[in-house]
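Sample entry (78 residues):
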Amino acid sequence: MTSDEYRVEVSFPLCCIPTDGASIAEILYCTYNRGGDHRTAGLNFAGDPCPIWAELPSNVRAKWVAVAMAVTACKGVG
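Predicted structure, serialized as tokens:
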């Protein structure tokens, strides 16, 4: 299934759906946005929409890259 087909099947905001060829950091960011109560998917703590990966400030993307590095370093944990 391509990401375009996936987008059609779900009603999540784009910030919850990784782009084709997404990095692990982007996949984790989108998964975080999609997680929890489906009524708040894609919304931040204040109830405002989360930006898509490409629109995140570089310092925020860097934090997600750090998370991805930590996750990939924890082989066999979980």
